Amino acid sequence: MQQVNETSLNITTSENSLDTITNWVEQHQHFLYSFGLSYLGNQQLTEELFYKAILKMYKGFPRYKHNMNFKSWVIANFLQTCRELEKTNTEVEEHAFLKAIQQLNQTEKEAAILTYINDFTHEEVAQILQLLKENVKEHLHSAIQSLRKAFGYGSNFNGCKEYQKDYIDYLGHSMERSNKIEFETHFYHCESCQEDLGTFQDVTIQLSEWRNVFKMPEGFLKKIKERIAEHEKEKHKKLKKRSIFIFSLTGVLVLFISYGILSGMFSKLYYTWTEDNEEVLAYIKNDLGEFLNLEAESNGVKITIKTAVADEFQTVILYEIEDTEANNPYMMVYEDGAYVENQYDILNMSIFPTYYPPFLDEEEKGDRQNVYQGKLSLPPLKEDSGTIKLSISSLQKVIDYNEAMTHGDFEMEYKEGEWNFEIPVTMKSSKEYALDKEVEIEGIPFRFEQLIVAPTTTMLRYSVYRDEQSEENLNVKFNQLRLNDEKLNQNLYSSLSVDFQLDMNWTAFQTSFEPFFNEGIHDVVIQFKNIDIVDYETMMLELDFSKEFPYTFEYGDSTFTVDKKEEGQWTNIIITNEDYKDGNLDDIFIGPYDAEGYVDNFDMHFDTVLVDKEGNEVALEEIDYYSDEMENYRYVTRSYELRFENIDPEKNLKIRLDGFRKTIYSDEIVEIPL
């Protein structure tokens, strides 16, 4: 299959964007042709698909954003056009494969084509189809079962049902190691499952091979380009005629627009004087949201929706909750008492929001103990605007977590009621700034590529170089991001890997910070905090019981001691991290094996402590557990005690080390002038 990349596309909203899109489609025409013909099963409709989809993308190109890579965006447009054309499809070509595909229901067909013919990952398919990844795998499983019968394998298979649900993960090499061991052990002994899985795999292979069979007819795209050129010619003629009429109405429109601005000015000033929520005011003053002040009261609690702000990353509802009968602050929790009735119609459920509520301490409560001002973060809108139907059945009481941990009382309290809102929201645009800075932090190459200033967040996009043999996962925490000397803090749990990199060896990430409201960025300053690394380097530690204990071994740049202790029928193996204070290796992943394979008759105990940057141990009760102060410490496992029952001393015991986790501290500062 031809590899689809984005290097040939200048992603811009220039006046030549039609040519840009057409050229990209031409470079990847075979990839798109196999998608269209597989979906529609009709040569003539596939030609119509290209024509309509290119025009659709041209029209929507100014709204294209980088929350979806360009390849996925193109397929999403082709997919929507396919759905429209499928309703007019009365004839499928005489081809056994195409006829079999058409027998699937819509979601099964789309998932199978995208996954096996177009080679998208489950995550990408979920994003394109607006589904959860688990739902994608369910539809794939159903599709393959149907195709297996259509391809002549029959339907009389007796594989064990509890293992059938794992076929997709196993064949896609995405099953967790422990589950994979159990899965393969079962299949080694079960002939029914072997036959079931074997034919299941044959169907996926046939699907993948079909993508090389479809041949695009000569002159196919030339004919489409000629139709598009003629369409644009006619469109410009009509626009020229309309411009004369529109010009004559300009004076009248100016009069009405001026009146509208003046009539709304006094209400805006009034709310500005009376509103005490600074974040709400910031959105209003910068024309990113409107004063809504929607109110609903139930069971002695009044909820006021102050404003709503939407961009391509999330939809944020800013609210105030007042307990009118007692001094209890309450907050909304999405999908735990707060639910959007029309979420699948209006929200892009494949994108997770970037904001999470912070932990509340006593100082943040302020004087009004019965009032809580908060934010509800929802997925972004599907369209440019819409009305969110928010239904609230329960509210969670805001707890002072430090006090709760101190007194050992940590039980959630809820307030039941019925609050319903219809919230109008309009998508706001963001500003993108290209960054071109490559640095090396603690021996790790970083490349900062893009800054996106969106209404609800500031997004930093960067890549980390990893060679092909690397099995590391990284999570970077930044101390701050400064734009024009204004400090923005990183949002909780906001760093994640994304799919926008162009180079194979560079893994792309994005991190969310507080929103930035000022105009004109001339300086970007990035300060690191720490880098968490998980390395899946494996090592088999073989314990020879005929040798003397203890002894040491090296793993992950740290020294470990292995000791043995006998307690009746139990054999205790103690693995101690000798460098836990200054080696920055926090934890190791252990899987015990004996000569025959996996050992299941064992217990494991950990000795875990908190360690600061200087390697000093800190008692948990000495710090505020839920405060930002916790980020200055790392959890370190000093030792691991594995207790095995009835170990044969004549056999060596194998302990597989599956990887380790470590923390690298750095306060490096990267300055990027714009």
Which descriptors apply to this entry?
4 domains; Immunoglobulin-like; single chain; alpha+beta; transmembrane; 27 strands; six-stranded antiparallel β-sheet; disordered N terminus; 674 residues; eight-stranded antiparallel β-sheet
Write structural notes for this entry.
This is DUF4179 domain-containing protein. Keywords: DNA-binding, Membrane, Sigma factor, Transcription, Transcription regulation, Transmembrane, Transmembrane helix. Belongs to the sigma-70 factor family. ECF subfamily. Pfam families: DUF4179, Sigma70_r2, Sigma70_r4. This protein is of the alpha+beta class. The protein has four domains: 194 residues, no CATH class; 152 residues, Immunoglobulin-like (Sandwich), CATH 2.60.40; 105 residues, Immunoglobulin-like; 127 residues. It has 18 helices and 27 strands. The longest helix has 29 residues. The radius of gyration is 30 Å and the shape is globular.
Helix content: 25-40%
Tally of DSSP helical segments? 18
The class by helix and strand makeup works out as alpha+beta
Give the DSSP E fraction (strand runs of 2 or more residues).
25-35%
Profile the largest sheet.
Answer: 8 strands, antiparallel
Q: Which outline best applies?
A: globular
- Residue-averaged pLDDT, rounded? 79
Radius of gyration: 30 Å
Low-pLDDT segments, ≥5 res = 1-15, 238-272, 361-365, 405-409
Domain RNA polymerase sigma-70 region: 25-75, 100-149
Domain DUF4179: 237-323
Keywords: DNA-binding, Membrane, Sigma factor, Transcription, Transcription regulation, Transmembrane, Transmembrane helix
Transmembrane segments: 243-262
